[in-house]
Structures are given as C-alpha cells and as structure tokens.
Amino acid sequence: MHTKKSTLLLCSTLVLGMTACSNGGGNNGGDGGKGAASASPSASSSASQQAAASGAGASEDASFGKYDETVTVSLGRQGVSGNNLPSGDTLESNQYLKYVEDRLNVKIKYDFSVEDLDAYNQKVTLAIASNNIPDIMVVDEQQFQRMAKAGMLADLTDIYDKYASPLIKEYYGSYTGDRVLNTGRIGGKLYALPNTNIDGNFQLLWMRKDWLEHLNLELPKTVDDLKSIIQAFVQKDPDGNGQADTVGLLGDTSIVTDGGFFTFDPIFNAYHSYPKSWFQDADGNVVYGSTTPETKQALGVLREMYAQGLIDKEFLTRKWEDNAGLVSSGRAGILFAPWFAGWAMSDAVKANPKADWVPLAVPLDDAGKRNIVPSVPSGSFLVVKKQAKNPEAAIKILNVEYEGIRLIDPASQELYKGLGVGWLNYPLNLQLDFQDSLARDVPIYDKVVQDKDKTGLPARILPRVESVLKNQENPKQDMAAYADSLAFYTAAAVTGAKELNKVEPAYYGKTETMLKRGANLDKLENETFLKIITGTSPLDEFDSFVSTWKSIGGNEVAKEIKEALQAK
C-alpha cells in the first residue's frame, strides 16, 4: 500500500475513536477510529456535562430540542466500505440512525450513498451540475467553493451560533484563532462546517530501544546522532543474530507527506525546510517551501545518507507492505511515522517479544526544537442546501450524533454494545475533535496507572484505559492492549513534547492553477528530489528545478495565493 493511501486509510478510521481503528470501529471509545481522543476532563466539566444533561431527547433547548412534527431531511453521503453492521442493518437503517431520528423527530432520507470515493464525488458533481443537491452533504474543498460561488448553500452563521451545542463549539474553539471554522467562511459568512484535523500527525522517530541498549548507544537528539545510530544498526549486528541482515532508515518515494509512513519530513524540518507548504515572508512575498535554500541543504544531507548506506538502498522499489514486512520481521529498527504507527509496531513485538519500540520527537534543529508543520485544518465540509426547509436540522443532528459517538448520553452506550460497529454509520460522516485531543488524555492515563482507579472516567475512554492497565500489569502479553497503549499513551505523550515548534503555513487551499497544473508541478518536484537523493542527479539540479517549477506554473500559483491572502 502506498504511503499516502495507507495514511488516508488509517486516518479515515483513526481520528474518532478507539475501536474504529483497532478492531473495525465501534461504539466503545467514541472516537471513531484509532486516533484522536475525545472529550477530556476539562470538556467533561463544561460542554460535555451540559450535553449529558440533555438526556435522550429530554432537553428543550435550541441545540437538542425535539421537533413537534416530524421533519424530513435529504442526505447524500459516502458509504462505509467493509461495513460490519449486524445482519439486517444497513447504512440507511440502523440503531445509530434511529437514535438520532428518535431524539429529534427527524426523518433522514438518503438521496444517495456510495462507498467508493471517486464514485461518490461523481454523484456530488452531477448533483451540483444539475442544481439538484440534497439538503445535506459532506463535500471536499473544491465542491464546497463551487456550490458557494453558485449561491447554492445556506448561510449557517446565525444558525451555528444559535443551534450548535457547547461540545461542538468547544471542538472548533480549541483550534487557535478559529483556524478551522474559518475554512468554512466566505466573505465573513459561515457556509459550511468543516471537519477538524487534530494535532500530532507529524512523524515521530520510531526505533528499537533494545538495539540501542545492545550496542550501548544513547537515544538520539540531532541528525548527526541519528546518522551514527543508523550506521551502527546497519553495520554492528544490533539484533545479535550474527548475520548482516539489518537495513538502515526506511524510506518512501513520496518523500514528504503529512501523516505519512517512512517519509523524510523530520530530516527536512531539522534544517528549517518545509516542502509542499506555502508561507509568507516579512515582505509579504509568498514562498513555496520546496524551493528554499534550506530544502536544498536538506536534500544534500539525505543524498549523503543514501550514498553512505544509511537510507535503505531499495526504498525506491519497496511498497508500503514491503517496509512493514521489514519492521515485523525484525530487519528494520528505525523509521519515521506518526503516533498511530504503534499498531504497526505490535507486529514486530508479536514476532519477537524482546523488541522494544520507542517513539521520539527528534531530530532537533540547532536550537533544540523539533519543527513541525501542522496538518491542514480541514479537508471536508458539511454543507446545507439554500432551499432546505429546516437548515438548523443539520446542526442539531450533528449535536445529537456526537453525544452518541462520545458516549455522553447513557442511552448511546447501549447501541451495538460489544459489537464494534463503526461510528461512520451515524448519518453525518464529519470528524470533529479537540486540537490537542491526543495529548489532553495522557494525564488521565498517568493518573489511572498511578492510582489504579477508574472511578468517574468518561465512558468513551474506558476501553483504552483498560488496555493501558492491562499492558502495565503484563507488558506485551496482550498484543491489542500493547498496541493501544503504545499508540494512545506512549506515542500520544510524545506528540505534546516541549521541544515541538509549530511552523504554520500561510495558505492551505487549492488555487485555480494548482488544480490545472498541480499534477505536473508535483511530478517535477518528486522526480527531481528522488534523483538528487539517490545520486542520479547532482545536488545543483535543485536550482534548475526551482527555475523550471516557477516558469511552468509555480509563479502563477504564488500570485494567486498572495491575492487570496490579501482578500482575507
């Protein structure tokens, strides 16, 4: 599986809850996938408590008020691939859907549901072109912008203020400067509710600590430390089997990818290089991170590492599964991957219980910082048709849905209990969470490990707490518990390391020229960088790349971004 494809697959199931990623999704962690944590103690004392007080449709406030007469809304959405609903239940008829409908007296009618993303996008495009869209859809950025420009969308500004629940508002409010909710605004008006991409999807350095100890090496901090350790891992038989069968740093041909496995983002970042991101300098000039002198310097370092055998010589031809196999077979002991790689590491431990994987926020730059580029704030958008009779119903459905997903309402805790049915079977497939959802749950685990007391914990976190406690009591004996603990507890704690320095891009969206020429620009960049790293082209080829890249569309993109920034 290609890195980007694997990352998207993981993240689509990870972000909302414990079981959705670890065992197919479900209603016992409330986060939807294997990723982000959910409401924290701070949220529980404010928004979550207010929401919980509503009960199953008992509240008469604006956020949860039940309609006196049945309201029908039409919905178009992407379906759930590989659904594990029990026999007889479907996306269009299941307990989650009935839970929402019963609480609000809302009847949800599916205009269409298509599992394949490309096929879904075709449905959406056709609906837009024919000006016949359902009341509610979740769409991508280009589709959102197109509908907004055509005047097809309801203005949700006042509706959001009045109807969004305290929890939903706290999710969006946790992102600095309204950086997420602003992506749904055009001309100061809110025309869409965006999804939220949590902090922490940057690459950590994962390495075999038992190999370090076998070779009497210290944990690394800098790129130079990293080079020395990789060299030892390649040359000094770190696994002690008497064979020269270990490989160096694993790599992927995508080179740099947000949330990617085996990519080289941290090496670039250590040299203040941020490929594929757009920034604005002090003079107002728009700069593409892939074209800076710092990027050339980082490519030179990677080129030297490859020439010295520190980077896996075969990374150009290896697929995602090949790299994963090197990890699980014990041939690879060092790689870059996000926090949720904890589950992948469990395969290596299953094969060799002595394997001890540790995640680190390194390499650091010359100031002792691990520079990171935050994930794009959002990528999908909940929109409501301008002619919808009850546009507020979309937000009320979202309110109720998240009481269910987060297991705040006691009644929701009984839905598909123990069956691991994924949260995506709720009607609105919009992922929401706190910006720091990973790090904010770590103190809970710390306290539980110390006190062995689970009293008063929110229901949505109990399964993960059980995993952490089980692994603490009998390390590595239960692989599911070990994997959950390694990801949600050990690695999640590292995502909040004090050394982190966020470098925020000035622009995340897509311009007209990006849409028209982006594929060619990306291809030129990727091919040039790979040739430089592997020694096929000289380092100075970078200068020719920059010149060509600018002339075939890069300068035009920069101009469009500058205009977009000035229009804000």
Automatic annotation (TrEMBL):
Q: Which InterPro entries match?
A: Bact_solute-bd_prot1, SBP
- Pfam families from the xrefs? SBP_bac_1
Enumerate the SUPFAM superfamilies for this protein: Periplasmic binding protein-like II (SSF53850)
Q: What ranges does the record list as Low complexity composition bias?
A: 36-61
Per the UniProt entry, the signal peptide is 1-20
Region annotated Disordered, chain positions: 30-61
Q: Which UniProt keywords apply?
A: Signal
Annotated membrane-spanning segments are none
User: How is this protein named in the record?
Assistant: Extracellular solute-binding protein
Upper lineage is: Bacteria, Bacillati, Bacillota, Bacilli, Bacillales
